[in-house]
Design goal:
This protein is α+β, with helices and mostly antiparallel strands. The protein has one domain (about 15-120): predicted glycosyltransferase like domains (Thrombin, subunit H, Beta Barrel). Helix content is about 25%, strand content about 45%. It has three helices and six strands. Strands 1-2-3-6-5-4 form a six-stranded antiparallel barrel. The longest helix is centred in the last third of the chain and has 15 residues, at about 95-105. The protein is globular and about 40 Å long. About 15% of the residues are buried. Monomer in both c-di-GMP-bound and free forms.
Length: about 120
């Protein structure tokens, strides 16, 4: 019997952050708010008239602190009420460097980030 909670199974710590998100699919665009971010995923508020399902692919641009932009290719992992969870699977080097630095600052240092980076490669 599996008694682990979802948090226990999660490898990557989620960091609550305020920011804006743009989701692109073909010619469709949705704008919404960032809820939290991890080394492998993003949780956002569900935008009005969102037309997507788990497994659907999107391009996502995150804007944090008004200027920091992180662009990535994502796949919808879960749709739960007013929230959407995405896993990223494509990211350019500059965006990955920004993501890594943002998480390092919010996780409390490079040691925690290095553990998460090791888990990413596992």
């Amino acid at each position: 019997m599996d008694t682990d909670s979802g948090q226990d199974r999660r490898r990557f710590q989620r960091v609550p952050l305020a920011g804006s998100v743009r989701l692109y699919s073909g010619s469709a665009l949705w704008e919404t708010d960032l809820i939290d971010l991890s080394l492998k995923g993003v949780l956002v508020a569900r935008p009005a008239a969102f037309a997507g399902a788990p497994g659907a692919r999107f391009r996502m641009d995150l804007r944090v602190n008004g200027t920091l932009v992180i662009s990535m290719g994502v796949e919808a992992a879960r749709i739960e009420g007013d929230r959407l969870a995405f896993a990223w699977d494509r990211i350019d080097l500059d965006s990955f460097a920004r993501l890594k630095r943002l998480l390092e600052l919010n996780l409390g240092g490079h040691e925690r980030l290095h553990r998460e980076l090791a888990a990413l490669g596992a």
